[in-house]
Design goal:
Blueprint lengths: L3 E2 H17 L7 H22 L7 H25 L6 H27 L2 H29 L13 H10 L4 H7 L3 E2 L2 H27 L9 H8 L9 H30 L7 H16 L5 H29 L1
Helix pairs in contact: 1-5, 1-8, 1-10, 2-6, 2-8, 2-12, 3-10, 3-11, 3-12, 4-10, 4-11, 5-8, 5-10, 6-12, 7-10, 7-12, 8-9, 10-11
């Protein structure tokens, strides 16, 4: 497998995180901000414990992360279908179920192409995509700072901080890929971990603050607050940002799904070394099947528990392997 640089891995993971935040459903408040940031802090501490240990994962861990990658890929496709209710995709909106399947087919085809080019090429493209997305976020945030009502930050909270903490874990679908690929990254893994989670905290805070400031007044009737905030923000006088956001959102969706497919294909080749062809195709088919089962269900508790289990399982598995190596020596 082509190795990744720390910047490329961070870009792939941050794209997945930003896509998850964009697809966050239901009202958000300052409790959401604190829950997501608190969840990021907890994830960082567990990930740091994993980063300072050995690289290997046990066979049981590889099987778990393969299943988790299929599940997370299914949630990506499901969220893409759900978000079409507020993001106008002409073919999908006019064709119903067949439109959603066509959208999934096109996304799957692009995922297959990205995975076939190798991790290194995908990582390079992800750096560019992440830079464009962060630039769009900065423009939106600057527009919100000038035009938005910041009193929306103090609106009544509808969920407890603990519930928002679970929500913060639920939108962190890249943690499995982080655990799998951290050992394949060139450079210091601890620095990579610090860089990724620091960037994740800053971007999450910027996204949620922008959504609260712009869409806080209509939060009770907004299904997708981050997407609504991006649509309502008007940084340019002559041109709406909707089309630009649609392009960025689509690119993020494809890269988010491709990351899970590449993770699954990599683990499939590790678990079954003789299985060299059609790995990505098999994972994509399983992912789309999982999306059909997940569609219409948010599954916050299950997704949050899966993200937490991914990090904890990585730490436990890493300890076991380290102990075996020490005994062998």
């Amino acid at each position: 497998m082509n190795s990744l640089t720390k910047n490329q891995l961070c870009a792939l993971l941050l794209i997945t995180d930003m896509f998850g935040l964009c697809c966050m459903r239901g009202s958000i408040s300052t409790a959401t901000l604190w829950g997501v940031l608190g969840g990021t802090a907890i994830q960082f501490l567990i990930a740091l414990a994993f980063a300072v240990q050995g690289r290997g994962l046990s066979r049981a861990a590889e099987v778990f992360f393969l299943l988790y990658a299929v599940f997370c890929g299914g949630t990506v496709f499901s969220e893409l279908w759900q978000s079409s209710a507020v993001i106008y995709i002409p073919y999908e909106s006019s064709r119903g179920v067949w439109g959603r399947l066509m959208t999934a087919g096109l996304a799957a085809a692009v995922c297959l192409y990205i995975s076939s080019t190798g991790m290194k090429s995908a990582g390079r493209a992800a750096v560019i995509a992440a830079a464009v997305g962060i630039s769009c976020l900065a423009i939106d945030l600057a527009s919100a700072a000038v035009n938005a009502d910041w009193q929306n930050l103090w609106r009544p909270e509808r969920r407890s901080t603990f519930a928002e903490l679970i929500r913060g874990f639920a939108v962190s679908g890249g943690l499995g890929s982080f655990a799998v690929f951290l050992g394949e990254v060139r450079g210091d893994r601890v620095r990579t971990t610090v860089r990724y989670f620091a960037a994740k905290a800053v971007i999450s805070a910027a996204v949620l603050l922008t959504a609260l400031a712009v869409a806080g007044g209509i939060m009770p009737v907004t299904d997708f607050p981050v997407i609504t905030a991006a649509q309502l923000s008007q940084p340019f006088e002559a041109q709406r940002i909707d089309s630009l956001f649609l392009v960025v959102f689509s690119v993020f969706a494809v890269f988010s799904a491709a990351l899970q497919v590449m993770t699954g294909a990599f683990l499939l080749s590790r678990i079954f070394p003789s299985f060299r062809r059609w790995k990505s195709t098999v994972v994509i088919l399983c992912t789309v099947g999982a999306a059909c089962l997940i569609w219409g269900r948010e599954l916050l508790l299950l997704r949050g528990a899966g993200a937490a289990a991914a990090l904890i399982f990585a730490v436990i598995s890493c300890k076991k392997i380290s102990a075996v190596r020490t005994a062998d020596r």
